[in-house]
Structure formats: C-alpha cells, structure tokens
Sequence to fold (355 residues):
Amino acid sequence: MAVLKLFRSKLQHNYNHLNEVFKTHGIDWGIVAKLLCGHEKFLKEVLSLGVKEIHDSRVSNLKAIKKLAPDVQTVYIKPAPKKSIPEIIQYADVSFQTELDIIRLLSDEAVRQNKIHKIIIMIEMGDLREGVMGDDLVDFYSKVFELPGINVIGLGANFNCLHGVMPTKDKLVQLSLYKQIIEAKFNKTIPWVSGGTSVTIPLLFTHQLPKGINHFRIGEALFFGLNLFTGETFENMHDDVFELSAEIIELTEKPMLPHGVMAENPSGESFQVDESLYGKTSYRAILDVGLLDVNPKFLVPKDDIKMVGASSDMLVVEIGEHAGNYKVGDTLQFSLRYMGALSILNSKYISKEVE
Fold:
C-alpha cells in the first residue's frame, strides 16, 4: 500500500520560522489547513504547534477542528452556500464574505444562535475569483456594519488563486487604503487588512509589504517552504514535510515504444512515436498509486527515474537499462507539490502516517 508521511520535526521547524518572521513584522497569521482534508491525525499535529487560528474551506473540517481544539479561532475561507449557513455560524468564528444577501442570512442565524459572527469582506484585486468590486465597497459596507450578530473585523484579498495575478506593493497599498476610507467615513475600526497568503511572503523579505497589511493566511509556505515568486525553497525552510512512498508491484524489462494500432487512452492522451527508440528496451516499474490518487505531474521522484504515465490505479516509471538494486516489493519515494498532496490527502486509498 502507498503511504503518505508527514515529518513532524520539519513541520515544527517551518512553523517556528514563519512564526518568528511574522512576529518580527507585527503580523497576525493563521494556518490554512484545507490541504489536510480534515484528516484527524495530521490536524492534531498542526494543532500541537501552538496555533491560535486555523482556516479551511470545508465546514466539516472546521467541525473536526472545533472538536479537537474548541479555543482555536476557526475561519471559513470562501463565500457561504445558503444551506451551510447554520453550520458556518456554529463551527466558524470568522468567515470571508462577498454577498450582501448571504451576510444578512448569516446575521439572522447568528442572532438565532446567540452569537457574534466575525467576517472579513473580500475585495476584488484583479485575480477575478471572489471579491466585492472596489467601487462598490463603501455602499456594501454601509449595508453590513449595522447588521445584528455581525462584526466586520477585516478587509481581505486573494492573489494567484485563479488567473495567477501576483500581489504587488501597489495592489497592497490600494487594499490598505480601502480600510482607511471605511474607517474615516463610518468612524469604525477594522482591525485586520488580510492581504497575505503564501504568495505574499516574499514581499516581506524585499521590504515591499505596506505597513497596513497586518494579517496573513498561510498554507503552502508552511507545508512546502515554497517561494511562489521564484519557485525555489525559502532559506531555512523544509520543502519535504510530506513524502509519498509507493511500492513496486511489477518490474520488467520492456520495449520503450508501444506497438499495435494506437488510439487515445482513457485519459484522452494520444502518444507520438519517437522512432529513435525502436528496438530499445528499459526496465519499467509499476507502482501501486494512480490517477485516482494523484496526477503524476505533481510528484517529484527522489530516485533517478523517469515518469512514463499513469492509469487509474497504477503509475509507470522507467528505471533505465538496468534494474539496479530495485526489486518487486521495494518502495520509491516522492516529494509532492501542493496539488499532489491535496489529491493524496483526499484519497481514502493512501495510508497516512506521522514520522
């Protein structure tokens, strides 16, 4: 069986490093735990770090977090579906919101549950996912701030989530100015300007982050140490908190080219024949993981092997002209990119362990 391992010491190291960076800059932050898909064993590891705030996009995951750590502030990080509103009020202390009608329903439900529900109004800053248009913000806020059971604690924005629009100093200054406009016009205090996700961290190190940005939501940088501007690993951080081990279930020397009448495979792929490979062979290993679990493009092999392709349940890799020390029953290890880890954590077929 394939196994996904989480390395406790590496996760703790990354957390401590980020916590020190944000503390030095006077920034509050929470961990985005949606990657973990509510997996209790891994959630416990994150909670043991000493976190005060966890973000997720699934109410069921927030429910699991509240069960494990009732005092941790939970944040629901997408606009609320109507049917989920009662549970959002019950299990999320804070939510990101962009729709006035939904906020009114949240207000009604918060009153019913005798709670004050905190919201962060998300503003559209160019990536064209969720967000109130900037020109509409003052009118939008005027209809929200007096709703019973609702407390607006922040303005926020997302970058690089849909179209790849990156945060810049100018965009973040603009986000900070929205707060100043709202506070001046309505004589209200908005504690947070939540302009930071993992993609914004490099602006801290290049001194381009405006002082008004005082809240971050961090997932990818914590689990993968990734600088999303350069594609490299941040200095003093680990990029291998997670590791996938997959067992070799067949190892055979085979031709390097398929033969026979060819058509699209079940994934819709058509293969082109490289005539230079006629007559050549190599050892191919089949591993017990497939497209149902993860797209191979999000796997980074630690051995000197070549990814060939995958079907629903099996991954084929090319080992080379010699089998070397490999044999059936051995395991190959892979580092993971974010979307690869997300798929595997959502797969019930992959065992999860803490190392």
Notes: Residues 242-354 form a domain with the Elongation Factor Tu (Ef-tu); domain 3 fold (CATH 2.40.30). DSSP finds ten helices and 16 strands in the chain.
